[in-house]
Design brief:
The structure is a single chain. The chain has a domain of 139 residues: Tetracycline Repressor, domain 2 (Orthogonal Bundle), CATH 1.10.357. Helices cover 73% and strands 0% of the residues. It contains 9 helices and no strands. The longest helix is centred in the middle third of the chain and has 24 residues. One of its GO terms (molecular function) is DNA-binding transcription factor activity.
């Protein structure tokens, strides 16, 4: 049985509604970071966003849909960065470009605690995990196109490779910002891991 993705009941079209929609999501992000997913409530989100609870329910069935929408927004932001990144590949300097992109992602996770809060929240139930997986797949599809010139002989495996790359990056970035963990050292190991993986595929494909 396929789990249906958790998405808003509707999306705003008028400017005033868009502002309320954005305010609710911004408030949810703040609260999620402050109190954690278990303590997050739709009532508190609506109160902080200064909208009636009925307005919130017009768009979101529950808090699970809200965190999935936050995850989608984070994914869109990364997609935009990947689009700019893709314009520079293939290149003899692609390892440098990969490092630059991972540095950008690492800075987002280091400087914005809500990134990890959202990522952890969408791991909480089968439905939210399935929705987050679809968001990751969007990134993986983009990564698959990105690494195509580096893996010409791995067309059949490229989709799985890309999913592994994306999930590994997100998992280790989440790990890197946990209390007691060394963020710079973890990011360095992530770079080595992903660059080594792609270099291995590149060299294998050249044989």
């Amino acid at each position: 049985m396929t789990t249906q993705p958790l998405v808003p009941r509707k999306r705003p079209t008028q400017e005033r509604s868009k502002r309320k929609f954005s305010a609710m999501l911004a408030s949810a992000r703040e609260l999620l970071t402050e109190v954690g997913f278990e303590s997050l409530t739709c009532e508190e989100i609506a109160s902080r966003a200064e909208v009636p609870i009925g307005t919130l329910y017009q768009y979101f069935a529950n808090k699970y849909v809200i965190v999935c929408e936050l995850d989608r927004l984070d994914t869109v932001a990364v997609r935009e960065e990947l689009t700019a990144f893709a314009s520079e590949v293939p290149s003899l300097e692609w390892p440098v470009l990969l490092e630059k992109f991972l540095d950008h992602l690492a800075a987002l996770w280091r400087d914005d605690p809500s990134r990890r809060a959202v990522w952890l929240a969408v791991q909480s139930t089968p439905a939210t995990r399935a929705t987050a997986s679809q968001n990751e797949r969007v990134l993986a599809d983009q990564v698959s196109r990105l690494i195509a010139p580096l893996t010409p002989s791995q067309r059949a495996r490229r989709e799985m490779m890309s999913q592994v790359l994306v999930h590994t990056a997100y998992s280790l970035l989440s790990f890197s910002v946990q209390d007691g963990h060394n963020h710079p050292e973890t990011v360095t190991e992530l770079k080595r891991m992903l660059a080594g993986y792609l270099l291995l595929e590149e060299s294998t494909g050249a044989l």
